[in-house]
Amino acid sequence: MSHIHIDVEHVSFSYESGVRILDDISFHASENESIGIIGANGVGKSTLLKLLVGLNLNFDGSIRIEEVPVEKKTLPKIREKIGYVFQDSDSQLFMSTVFEDVAFAPRNYGLSEEEVRRRVDYALEMTGISKLRDKQIYKMSGGEKKLASIATILSMTPDIILMDEPSIALDPKNRRNLIRILNSFDHLKLIASHDLDMILDTCSRTIIMAGGKIIADGKTEELLRDKELLEQNDLELPFCLQGYHPR
Ligand SMILES: Nc1ncnc2c1ncn2[C@@H]1O[C@H](COP(=O)(O)OP(=O)(O)O)[C@@H](O)[C@H]1O
Ligand SMILES: [Mg+2]
To answer: E strands, the chain, where?
Structure first.
């Protein structure tokens, strides 16, 4: 396998309104790092993830995924390397059953039916939902849908996984299960979230964003214990460091 890495250099981005959402963002990520992207609502976490996977291409600066620049003509290649898990599972799942959804991308990619089945089995096993293989999507719980969404990207065997607010709307048991599953992956992961307890449990490195910029980039254990730094950026200590533990 080639050396897995992401290089973001001097990236700035505005939507049509012209307001600069990302302002000169640079970072490097590699191999099996797990990186939390945190910051107040509207700071541009989701926008940054979308840029990495080429959902918005009119940015300034450069984004390279394993040396491949993110641009229109490289998108098929980029999407083989990166799997993006949407915040809203209903945006990810559009077929009628789990099997159909998880098989969709590899089928679309032209793989043999035998290989497609092998990929689906692998993805369902990795997410612990083999028994939901034939379940109808509309009958599934939020937690099940989130795992199925993750399985739809694993079936393309990405090197890199991007997740936008994966724990949002999960009950505590499903949330713990998600954390366990994320920790079992050795992919390069970028997780945007305001669930700082989950970031503490899943990411060794954290990037704090504010005002369109990266304010801090370092060890999660250090940044998420820095009450002053967090408060300056409209964040709070994780609950588990506020003196009580959510169950
Ligand atoms: N499609 C869009 N068009 C215009 N503005 C947008 C769009 N998506 C997000 N924004 C704006 O960009 C800013 C950053 O949004 P977002 O990346 O979703 O932040 P976060 O994920 O950190 O909450 C917000 O001000 C939001 O309103
Ligand atoms: Mg967001």
So the answer is: 5-14, 20-30, 34-38, 60-65, 68-69, 82-85, 160-164, 188-192, 205-210, 213-219
